[in-house]
Amino acid sequence: MKAIIALEDGRIFEGRSFTGPGEAMGEIVFNTSMTGYQEILTDPSYRGQIVTMTYPLIGNYGVNDEDEESSAIHLSAFVVREYEEDYSNWRAKTNLREYLQKHSILGIEQVDTRAITKHIRTAGAMKAVISTDVANPEALVQKAKESPGLVGRDLVQEVSSSTPYLWENGPVPMDKDGVEKAFEAEKERLKVAVLDCGLKYNQLRIFERLGCISAVFPHNTPPETMLQCSPDGIFLSNGPGDPAALTTIIETIKQLLGKKPIFGICLGHQVLSLALGAKTYKLKFGHRGANQPVKDLSTGKIEITSQNHGFAVDEATIPEGVEITHINLNDRTVEGIRHTEMPAFSVQYHPENAPGPHDAEYLFDRFIQMMAEHKS
Known about the structure:
Blueprint: E1 2-7, E2 12-17, E3 23-31, H1 37-41, E4 49-53, E5 57-58, E6 77-79, E7 82-83, H2 96-102, E8 106-109, H3 113-123, E9 126-131, H4 137-146, H5 156-159, E10 165-167, E11 171-173, H6 176-185, E12 190-195, H7 201-209, E13 212-217, H8 223-228, E14 233-236, H9 247-256, E15 262-265, H10 267-275, E16 280-296, E17 302-313, E18 322-328, E19 334-339, E20 344-347, H11 362-375
Parallel strand pairs: 3-4, 4-6, 5-7, 6-8, 12-13, 12-14, 14-15, 15-20
Antiparallel strand pairs: 1-2, 1-9, 2-8, 3-9, 10-11, 10-13, 16-17, 16-18, 18-19, 19-20
């Protein structure tokens, strides 16, 4: 079934749908990962975006039950050069087409993804519409122009959990009182209160593997509610959209600063920076993929990282008392900060990988050490 990708600047790309008829809109971006498409599909940070994969063959290892990073697919549509229907992997349960159809997500193939990527790198990420109704391309361009972008949008409310839950080899739903009792009864493990801005499950899996118990709270949870549970630390998750639009979350973090150790990832890094007085801005085409080189300024070591973000912290606005800990070696953007007096630090990339290299998992150990020292 023929499909058209119409960009707001008037550029048109052709392909065909491998999931049936449909239409979708969002900001079109590209991801440079060679593998990990299932983790990308279920990453809540892609809410409101159309993802184009630069690796040309997608679908050849199917879809399984273990690699989901959330309970749903969050991107608007999925664009690939060539879709492979016949998968080969002992873990696979179904093919990519059936998986996308189950979640009502449009999948497009036979697209010149190299041309899309080069255009975005030159012109920047922009709004787009994909449709199998190809009769009027000009109308699709106009629809793309009129669609909402990401700037100023609070998309966290669309992906965050609506109720608290514990993570014990998977989510265990419970109310605030249940979390409080579970934390109070816990004598051995460090207790992590997670502010869910659109988290990935592997963050919770790593905390569990390292001997912590995690309680996940909705994005709009008041700071006093989280503190009532007497956690040993606060974790700020990744998530979608414009960090500057998250005024309630930023205010929550301001009230948590100095009371408990804080660790933020991706959007969590951005909102922590905003709470400390810095500003954020939109990148031209963002960082999305599993091959971004980052330098840890404290050790001088280089790590290859997994990233997914379209906004960044403005280095010129970082206030006194906050130091830069990591930088991106491709464009020198800020990749990590820490407060010099309060126990709070964050990174722009994804140390929990899934997909991607494991170079940066040491940051979870660093947070656990910080919680243990603060507790003693």
